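Q: How would the C-alpha cells look for this protein?
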Amino acid sequence: MPGMKTSLAARKAVLRAFVKMCDDLGRPPSVRELGEAMGYAKPHYVHRALSKLIERGMLLGQKQVTVRAKRVSAAGLRWLAQEERG
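A: Here is the predicted structure in C-alpha cell form.
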C-alpha cells in the first residue's frame, strides 16, 4: 500500500477487518488496533482507506471523527457478502 492509492482490495480488507474486530472486541477498533491487525506500519494508510469507505457509503461517519465513532453501513455489509457468495 505504501506509495499507492488505496485499492479496492485494500479497502475491502480494511472493511472486513473492521467488521471482524467489532465482533471480537464488542466495539469498533481504534485506528492503531486496525492498523496493527492489517499489518500497516503507519496509521495514515488506515485513515486513507477509512476515508474512501466513507466516501463510497460503506462506512457511516465523518472523516474527521475517530474510527470508534464509525459504523458499517448496509451497503458495506452487502459489499462484503457479495464476495462470500462468489
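Strands lie at 59-60, 71-72.

Residues 8-81 form a domain with the Arc Repressor Mutant, subunit A fold (CATH 1.10.10.10).

Upvote if useful.
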